[in-house]
Specification:
The complex is a heterodimer of chains A (216) and B (194).
Chain A (H helix, E strand, L loop, with lengths): L7 H8 L2 H5 L3 H6 L4 H25 L8 H23 L1 H7 L10 H11 L4 H31 L1 E2 L2 E2 L14 H38 L2
Antiparallel strand pairs in A: 1-2
Helix pairs in contact in A: 1-8, 4-5, 4-7, 4-8, 5-7, 7-8, 8-9
Chain B lengths: L4 H11 L10 H6 L4 H31 L6 H23 L1 H7 L2 H4 L4 H12 L4 H29 L11 H16 L9
Helix pairs in contact in B: 1-8, 3-4, 3-7, 3-8, 4-5, 4-7, 7-8, 8-9
Amino acid sequence: MKDTAPNPFVNGLWRQNPTFVQILGMCPTLAITNSVQNAIAMGLATAFVLTCANGIIAAIRKHVPKQVRIATFIAIIATAVTITDYFVKAISIPVYKALGPFIPLIVANCLVLERAEAFAAKKPVIPSILDGAGMGLGFAFGLTCLGTVREVLGAGTFLGFPLFGPNFEPWVLFLLPPGGFISLAIWLLVFASFRERKEAKERAALVEIQHAEVKP
Amino acid sequence: MNESLSHIFVDAFLINNFVLCVFLGMCSFLGLSGKFSTSWRMGVSVMFVITVSSILSFGTNLILVFFHAEYLRLITFIIIIAATVQLTEMFIKKKSPALFRELGIYLPLITTNCAVLAVPLFQTTRGYNLLQSTVFALSASGGYCMAMVLLSLVRERTDLSDVPSLARGTALTLVLASVLSMAFMGFAGMGGGQ
């Protein structure tokens, strides 16, 4: 099978970005992004789990019978998540409290299982690790984008530093659940308009070429 | 520990609705709410899986605590859920092949629904007893089912309306979900006196 994307790392980071293109792993994307710091921590935790799980699954893919593969994948993912859980608790208690139940819930993040099933179960170890890292960092990038909008508008700060003067009235709605939905919708619209403009340009170029061919 | 059952019910069903206020079970909420018929079937299957796995997890957690093996909690819970989903699948296949065909790929996907995993985790952290856990599981999953049905009804209407091509699909669904979520914020004051 020929790969359409030459580099699985770049593929996950941009072309198949989990948040904006594939729209996977929505629960943490919406729940944890009320500050940039939380978004980055959650993104890195997920990236770590994805890389570990993809690597292990790719290594044992030939020894797992087809019928029990989902259960096996989930057990491997759960192990990686347990490690992350205790790791974050050891590094920083405030971050651990802020992320709350969403670290154990990485197990049920559809992105992780999707990559295991779609990529790591079929490919060798090195590309799988690259794919996991790329997807994970792409996910972290998406979370950070969303977290930036929500923290700047909702609290008037970036990474805890106040951006505007003391007269700034924070738009608290963006820190509450509806703001999560709305800001993700705005980001999707921005990306969709980019894509539409690019496609329109390509179409215009194609029409021009056809005209040039017909005229003479 | 001392929360009354009615308080747990109102809290999980409305005030902290799993989907619209805590953001759990997002993938199926955004992905499967296109049609009313699929959404309520999905909601009811999720309710069943959540309730059964919550009761089983409660028992298993007692065993884990007895052996001081709490670090195995996550792995045990997810395996219980996977087994429950498998059982549900076999049961529906045997009893009603028509429903089985209709749900298709969605059934195994319940395993990776974070709402299902969150119920056993929350009930353990909050130290609920068996009765409280069951009520919590029923009301949380009922809230999930209700949110699914509400969104699917709205989406069936927007299918017929004229939406800019840019906003079709997920962006529109997210805006609708946001409006629903704002409505649910109105419940935030309820039960505060308890």
